[in-house]
Each structure stands twice: as structure tokens, then as C-alpha cells.
Amino acid sequence: MKAALQRKWESIGRHALPVLSAAPSGGRATYDRLLQAIGDAPVVMIGEASHGTLDFYRERAIITRRLIEEKGFSSVIVEADWPDAYRINRFVQHYPTTKDKTAQDALGDFERFPKWMWRNTVEFVEWMREYNANRDVRQRAGFYGMDLYSFIASSNEVLEYLEKVDPQLAEDARENYECFLQYGDDPHAYARHTAFGMSPTCEKEVLETLKMIRAKTHERMRRDGFLEHDEDFYAQQNAEIVKDAEEYYRASAIGRADSWNIRDSHMVKAIHDLIGHRTKQTGAPAKVVIWAHNSHLGDARATDMGRKRRKHNVGQLLREQCGFNNTFNIGFTTYTGTVSAASGWGKPLQKKNVVPGRKDSWEGVLHEARPNGWHDFMLIFNQVKKASDSEARLGQWSHVLQGALRKHEVDTELTRLLSDELLERYIGVIYRPDTELLSHYSSSALSLQYDAVIHIDQTEALPPIDPHPHFPSSSSSSSYA
């Protein structure tokens, strides 16, 4: 056991790169090698080991800015609700329909638990708006959500859109949606009644409405201008959410194991739809960066989640559907520190101490490795390069690519040594340190799960914008240095 660990530490020591962005002179140069490894991959996923860590959000923003500025990425797609994030999109792209004057205004719809996750992107949103200010409308970078929790909000957005463009269709849609809107703003009430046979499902009605709105938006998109086209797409995506969320909430109500798969499949479809939409909008191959938790972006096939529980996730599906060579997947880990999390769903935000990583975990291995004395470092397992003629293999997205790409291992031994199955920690919006092994650890093969990993040994809790007793200076704090 000790010899195996020693080999891992030695290999980590040979290939680790320092992460210095928190230092005054750090930042851009830190990620030069990472951007070289990403190459021309059009899909980059950047994870997080928790939903409440300042360091992960800061580093992710730094990397994303460089992807937009230096590699022409046109969309940031986040693990957030579509309507909430689209309000930000209107703001950063300077749409005349936005009424928001500041980034904090644009974040105003993020009221659903957990508020602290996305209401701390103020500086990044401000930067995006400034970046877009002098660009042609077709060359601006957008900000989008991909989640499906906005069941009720999205249905209201569909109805509002139809009332403007086709009042008769709006009446038909309202009649269809009434089968779940009768339960008010609580989708769980609808799900409980239908899951246990107390009421019929709305499956047929939401599908019928989706077909109606697809036909209407398709008709309008053929003649609408740029901004109208965008609003048509926004409405159609809301109808897609209503359909998938209806199934998701019913599945969750009875504890169906496939509820996770329904959600992640929806997120992947949303990504595909946005890729197609942005490609048509800009007239250039769309390149997207995706922000979500490690549990969604790390390839599920390299984890217990996929191997034993038969769950897939965004990272796996994008590698399969877009082609392994056309994606690049970055994970984050931490050993200890503090985290913003709750003790249960809907419970108050707390600043919690993160238990030091277990010795039999990747967090423990990376902590003990401490290459060159560095506490914070990066490991790159794969790099994307232009394929030679003999190895050119285009995936489904050949229309998005400028040329065939090929992903190469940086070092075969590093990949092999870090492909052993060890525990990996996942902290979501809830953190239960007293039951950490059961609640937050799962086995994974690190080098197969990600193309690169950034380890920050001691991390800080993400401060909320709103005043909070655990964060005395939170009102002036920022997630993005």
C-alpha cells in the first residue's frame, strides 16, 4: 500500500503545475498550460467539489474569461434554472428588453434555495457585460442555464410568450397547463398526487403544448430578426423544460432511481440546443464552457455512480455524443477549509468547517503529495491536438469543428497510477460532516473521470451577497478576484 502511494506521489511530483492565481502576480500565466491542453476542443466543462467554495468559483471565472477572450468561446452554460439565467443573458448581451441597470439587479431572480450559489457571480456578470459592450450583437458572449427545476416559472414564461404572439394558442396552452398549475407554485404537490394515483398525470398535455410551441417558434424563426429569434428560442426551451420537469418531479416523488438520469439528460439536450442556436445566431461554430458540480461533469463511467448505480451524467453523455476528442473536462478537489452549505434542504446557510480528506481518498493522496512543496496545483491528464490525416475521426459534431481533433495522454504512467479506484468527496448544497463517509464520498478513477484536476488544499467558504451573520463582510465580498 505504501509503495503504491509512493509511486502516485512521485508521478504527481513530476507532472504537477502550480496554481498561483490567488497571489498578486498569479492568474493568467497559471493556466497557460491548461489552455494549451484544451487546444481547439469546442466543449469545456469546469466542475466544482462543492456548491459553496470561493476558490472554485474564482478559478473557474479566471479560466472562463481566458476561454472567451483567447479561444472565442461564445456561451457560458451553468447548472442553474433557465429563466433565472436568461435574465442575466439579456443583461450581459445588452438586449433592449432588459430593465436591469446592474449585475446585482440581473441576478434578482435567483431566489430559490440555495440562493448563495449563483448570486455571487456579480463581478463575472459585470465583466461579461463590459466585454460585450463594443461587440456586434452576433459576436457577444451569452450566459445560460441548463437545469429543469423551473417547472412552474417556465410554464408561466411559455404562457406569457404565447399571449404576445398568438392569444388563441395561449388559451390552448393554459388549458393544458391547468392540470398542474391547479396545485399552485409547488411542483411537489402535483408530483405526489399523480405519482400515487390520486390525479392523472399531465404528460400528454405538456407534450402537446411543446409540439404547439415548436411549430409556432419554427414559423416565427424563419422571418424574425436576431433578437426576436432569441426570444422565440427562449420560449421553446421553457416548453422543453416543462415537459422534462413534469417527468422529473413525478419520478422523484416515488424515489425512482432514474430521476437523476432524467435531469442530466435534460441538461445535455439543453447544451445541444444552445450549441445549435448559437451556431445559427453567430454564423460561426459555437464553443461552450459549462459550469456544474463535479458529480455532473466528471465522467460517470469512472465512478461508482455509473459503474454500480447505472447513472449517467453530463460529462459522460457529452463525451459520448460530442466525441471524446472534442471535449475537455476539468475537476476541482480540496483537502480542508470552510464551505457554505446547509444542514438540510431549505435549511439556513451556514459556514461549515470541511473535515480533512480521508487518507484513502484522492483528497488525501493529493494533500500528501505536496509536489515541490506546493499546496495548490494542477494535474493535466490529456491534451487536445489537431489530428493527423491518418487519425482524423470526426464525431457527431463535425459541423461544429474546424478540423479533426485528437486527445492524447500527457503521460501514460500518470494516467495509469491515478486510474485506481479511491474515494472522492462530493459536497453539494448540503454538508453533513458527521456522516461524511456515507453522505459525501464515492469511489472514482480520477484520471479517467477528468482531463485535468485542480487541487486547492485549503479553501474558503463562498460569501453570499446578502448580509449574513456567518459572513460579517458578505455585502462587499466577491467570488471573483
TrEMBL record:
The protein, known as: Erythromycin esterase
CDD domains assigned to the protein according to its UniProt record, in alphabetical order: Ere-like
Organism: Acanthamoeba castellanii (strain ATCC 30010 / Neff)
Example GO biological process: response to antibiotic
Pfam family, one: Erythro_esteras
Highest taxon of source: Eukaryota
